[in-house]
Specification:
The structure holds two protein chains of two kinds.
Chain A lengths: L31 H6 L14 E7 L5 E7 L1 H5 L3 E6 L6 E2 L7 E7 L2 H10 L1 E6 L6 H5 L16 E7 L2 H9 L3 E9 L11 E5 L7 E5 L4 H7 L13 E4 L14 H14 L3 E4 L2 H7 L5 E10 L5 E11 L18 E9 L14 H18 L4 H8 L3 H14 L17 E9 L10 E6 L5 E4 L9 H13 L6 E4 L16 H28 L6 E4 L2 E4 L6 E3 H6 L5 E6 L12 E9 L4 E11 L7 H20 L30 E6 L19 H13 L10 H9 L3
Parallel strand pairs in A: 1-12, 10-11, 14-15, 18-19, 25-26
Antiparallel strand pairs in A: 1-5, 2-4, 2-6, 3-5, 7-15, 8-13, 9-10, 9-12, 13-14, 16-24, 17-18, 17-23, 20-21, 21-22, 24-25
Helix pairs in contact in A: 9-10, 9-16, 12-13, 15-16
Chain B lengths: L19 H6 L31 E7 L2 E7 L5 H8 L20 E4 L2 E4 L12 E3 L1 H4 L7 H8 L9 H14 L5 H7 L10 H18 L4
Parallel strand pairs in B: 1-5
Antiparallel strand pairs in B: 1-2, 3-4, 3-5
Helix pairs in contact in B: 4-7
Classes of the chains: A alpha+beta, B alpha+beta.
Chain lengths: ~725, ~220
């Protein structure tokens, strides 16, 4: 890149977009060949000499007294090396989740470990399971909340706003809609389950933990304490070269990490403990469910007047997430009453935009409904109540791309023809991706090789690729000339990947390091090319002074000036980051009103994020958000057997996620009118509004308001015909 | 599975009649002990020690064109054999659902895409097994692998080996597949990151390159 205007001592800047030679283009993922050929080693794939395979025994229902557990038969099985009793006799299981882990068997092979699990004999007395929130709310329901002095399973209740004033404003409104929304619990379904391979190391050796984690920097410390490896963090190295999906579920070691550490310590052998799919569904976390009762008022011009929301968070044993109301729209008079309803089920965890898709579905449903109640265009009503210009331009562009302007039902829903109806719906998003301290080292060797190193992890976002690409851009190199090193707690520390914080934190640190390296090299060039630091152009693998383009050096010639490897360290720079993004999505669906089947025909998403580092990876992320939202809207629902407490949907046949045949035409639009000279993460935003857009499209098609997710044929038929 | 020492490859055709679930669950008297976890049952510890009925079998499998000696049990799945019982381990095929729902463990067996989690290693004696590693290396990728990289047909990458093998199968079987047919061919594979549109792009790119080059790889 030409890097003009970056004079010595000046803060680094991303530079004019037209000058960029590497960034803001389609960049091939640097680890693509490893992933496409099976060479990429994930935690699940780690194979060490003398490694034990561990399997977990879980109690299959949420609440029980464990009277006795006999592990002797398991211990005696050939191949079984160690049985770790997790629940002592006489203890209870309080919820379906990590508290239901009874024992772990470590063996010479995965099959022998499973044999051991099957050979454990448990005598337990099961109690009423309390898996449904309806049951949990009843006064005589057993208390599942662990909080002392709790008298109810309803906790953390908090109301905000003047309820009487809001009610009065609603009554005085030209239009008012009321809706009851129900959203089931969703699972992350990371294809690689939670797990670790813990190598305790030999006498006098350090320990190594291979972790499928979103937080590799923190892993050494997390495995250090008592009850873990009982060593100093400095004696533990954590590695996450690749990881098979996280979506918010994989931060700390979890119980599974602790148990692997304990077995590794007890046996002195490496332990492979990766959850089975059923374990993963039971204890791997989830997106909390939600029940919302909403009332929204508007004046006759479509301007919102007041909103009244009572929302329950269904986070199982945890608190659940809900960001409040009104979601993204401006409403002058607001009353919000939120609470958590505890059940004896696995705790919710962060999941891509925690709470936001739930809030979006409630809000966008009443926003949409009130537009039709006023016989107005729902896009116009949205624009009247959204303050950000970015939302306005994105709504216009997305409406155009989905074909809204030629669509017949713009102010009233359509009527089915031969049982089929086509509709279009919209939803908006917003997120504040973080950016905080983070470090990166860039090293240049005399032979011209370059290393960019930061302990971040690549969850599939393409982080590894920009770790190299940002440095390549600054030094006028190609991406393959820079070796990225990530996924290692021994590297300069980076942030845990949550809340779209990774790019906003690490990209500025990488840029800062690259900029410092450029300046350090320019200082060495001064006697050769006679220009001051800041007076050079780095492009096409060569450098020349701004004054004299004819006098240039090749990259290898520059590096040959070095006697020793040169290393610089960069840190997060606030000036390179801005964490405020929007996003709009639209869906076009076909509803079969005879069968209740919904087919999504097309989805469009538009996303802003400042400078796009890698346009191809960015489109992948936007598509991924749309697809996860489609899957959430149409298919996903955790199901418990309410009388006995079995998790029925603990496998990928009964917990359905979207596959190839559900894929509509998809258009991912990068908002290039966002010309901010900054970067930030963006992956939360595109998962927020898709399911709302699909529900609104169903209404637009045939006038059936889907208030209960997912939009399966039974729920669709009920919305069309009323309860049957 | 009368005699674990005699896997009798000529009886292969009959093996699929035995569901893997019943086969695995029935493998060993130990299975009975899981019964104690059903509800508030009053289980008594088994008399004496549980015994395993499994023995070990020496097999020779042809994997990626090479004969490999594998020591496994009659119940060992092909997936487990590849990942845990051959040297060096072939971990490209991934264990994800363990029940034939997701396709992450897809390999070719005699040229047919096969869920290796639903296939017993002993069933593969005398057959050609090709894993994702057998199609290409990072240094010398197959046309499909190259297309996945060019079109960003992957994110976290855990499903990618399965999709790559399924795509090879799709293009072998139906070189002119249109988009709907491609979706059908890949409908046995699941991705959570939401890579499908770029996977479809990759399949079409590989298809176009084959047509332009007039040859298969």
């Amino acid at each position: 890149m030409s890097s003009k205007g970056n004079t010595s001592g000046a803060d680094p800047s991303w530079g004019k977009r037209s000058d960029l030679e590497v960034l803001n283009r389609d960049i091939r993922r640097v680890d693509g060949p490893d992933k496409a050929t099976g060479r990429a080693v994930y935690t699940h794939d780690v194979r060490l000499p003398n490694m034990l395979h561990a399997a977990v025994l879980m109690h299959p229902v949420p609440r029980a007294d464990i009277r006795t557990m006999d592990i002797s038969a398991a211990e005696a099985l050939p191949g079984v090396v160690y049985v770790l009793r997790v629940k002592e006799d006489g203890k209870d299981v309080q919820y379906s989740g990590d508290d239901a882990v009874l024992a772990v068997v470590a063996a010479e092979s995965p099959e022998a470990a499973m044999d051991g699990v099957r050979a454990i004999v448990v005598d337990a007395e099961n109690k009423e399971p309390v898996v449904s929130t309806e049951r949990a709310k009843e006064p005589d329901a057993p208390l599942v909340a662990r909080r002392r002095r709790a008298t109810s399973n309803i906790t953390s209740r908090r109301a905000r706003g003047e309820e009487d004033a809001v009610k009065a404003a609603l009554e005085a409104s030209a239009a008012m809609v009321e809706m009851e929304i129900e959203i089931p619990v969703q699972h992350h379904v990371c294809l690689e389950p939670h797990g670790h391979v813990v190598d305790p190391g030999g006498e006098g050796e350090n320990a190594t933990v291979y972790a499928s984690t979103q937080a590799v920097s923190g892993m050494s410390g997390a495995f250090a304490g008592k009850g873990m490896l009982n060593r100093k963090a400095s004696e533990i190295r954590a590695l996450t070269p690749h990881m098979g999906g996280g979506f918010g579920a994989k931060f700390g070691p979890g119980l599974e990490g602790r148990l692997a550490a304990q077995i590794a310590r007890a046996t002195g052998r490496p332990v492979h403990l990766v959850l089975s799919r059923s374990n993963e569904f039971t204890m791997g976390g989830n997106r909390s469910g939600s029940k919302q009762s909403l009332k929204l008022g508007a004046d006759k011009t479509g301007k919102f007047t007041a909103i009244h929301v009572v929302a329950e968070r269904h986070g199982g044993f945890g608190g659940g997430a809900f960001p409040g109301a009104p979601y993204r729209y401006a409403v002058p008079s607001v009353f919000v009453d939120t609470m958590s309803v505890k059940t004896a089920t696995d705790s919710s965890r962060a999941m891509r935009a925690p709470g936001h898709p739930q809030a979006s579905f409630g809000m966008e449903s009443v926003v949409d409904q009130i537009a039709y109640a006023l016989k107005m265009d729902p896009v116009d009503v949205r624009k009247k109540n959204l303050t950000a210009d970015t939302h306005h331009r994105q709504l216009d562009r997305v409406a155009q791309e989905i074909g809204w302007n030629d669509h017949p039902n713009r102010t009233a829903p359509g009527t089915p023809k031969n049982g089929r109806a086509v509709g279009i719906g919209f939803g908006v998003a917003g997120w504040s991706p973080g950016g905080r301290d983070c470090q990166c080292d860039v090293t240049v060797h005399p032979d011209g090789s370059v290393i960019s190193a930061t302990a971040t992890q690549d969850l599939g976002t393409g982080a590894r690729t920009y770790v190299a690409a940002i440095v390549a851009e600054e030094l006028g190199l190609t991406v393959d000339q820079v070796t990225p090193r990530i996924g290692d707690s021994d590297l300069p520390p980076s942030v845990a990947s949550g809340g779209s914080v990774t790019t906003g934190s690490s990209a500025p640190a990488i840029k800062d390091a690259a900029h410092k390296m450029r300046e350090a090299l320019e200082a060495k060039l001064e006697p050769v090319l006679q220009a001051p630091v800041g007076g050079y152009i780095w492009t096409g693998g060569r450098v020349h002074s701004e004054e004299d383009p004819t006098n240039s050096l090749a990259w290898t010639e520059v590096c040959a000036l070095l006697r020793d490897p040169l290393q610089v360290s960069g840190r997060f720079q606030k000036s390179l980051y801005e964490g405020r993004i929007h996003g709009v999505q639209a869906a076009k669906v076909e509803v079969d009103t005879m069968t209740g089947r919904v087919k999504v025909l097309k989805m469009v998403a538009m996303q802003d994020q400042g400078l796009p580092l890698n346009r191809m990876a960015l489109r992948s992320q936007i598509n991924g958000g749309m697809i996860q939202a489609l899957s959430y809207g149409l298919l996903e629902r955790r199901v418990f057997d309410e009388s006995d407490g079995y998790l029925l949907s603990d496998n990928l046949d009964l917990y359905k996620i979207a596959g190839a045949q559900e894929m509509p035409e998809m258009v991912a639009i990068i908002d290039d009118e966002d010309e901010r000279d900054s970067v930030c993460g963006m992956a939360e935003a595109p998962i927020i509004p898709g399911q709302s857009a699909i529900a609104n499209a169903i209404y637009n098609a045939c006038g059936a308001r889907l208030t209960r997710m997912p939009f399966t044929p039974d729920n669709v038929l009920e919305a069309i015909h009323g309860e049957v | 599975m009368a005699d674990p020492q005699d896997p009798r490859p000529d009886k292969d055709a009959k093996v699929p009649a035995l569901s893997r679930r019943s086969f695995l669950k029935g493998a060993g008297g130990v299975a009975a002990a899981t019964g104690v976890l059903q509800g508030a049952v009053q289980a008594t510890p088994q008399e004496g020690r549980a015994a395993t009925l499994s023995g070990t079998v020496e097999l020779e499998l042809t994997i990626n064109g090479q004969a490999k000696k594998v020591t496994c049990e009659p119940r060992t799945t092909l997936l487990s054999a590849l990942r845990d019982r051959v040297e060096p381990a072939l971990t490209g095929a991934k264990p994800v659902c363990d029940m034939g729902s997701c396709g992450a463990c897809t390999v070719m067996v005699d040229g047919k895409p096969t869920y290796s989690c639903l296939t017993l290693a002993v069933q593969c004696k005398g057959k050609e097994v090709t894993t994702v590693e057998g199609f290409g290396t990072p240094e010398n990728m197959s046309d499909v692998q190259e297309a996945f990289c060019a079109k960003d047909g992957m994110m976290c990458g855990f499903c990618t080996p399965g999709f790559v093998v399924a795509t090879h199968a799709c293009l072998d079987r139906n070189p002119d597949a249109d988009l709907d047919e491609i979706k059908f061919e890949l409908s046995g594979n699941l991705c959570r990151c939401g890579t499908y549109p770029h996977v479809f792009d990759a399949v079409q790119a590989a298809q176009a390159a084959r047509k332009a080059g007039g040859q298969d790889r």
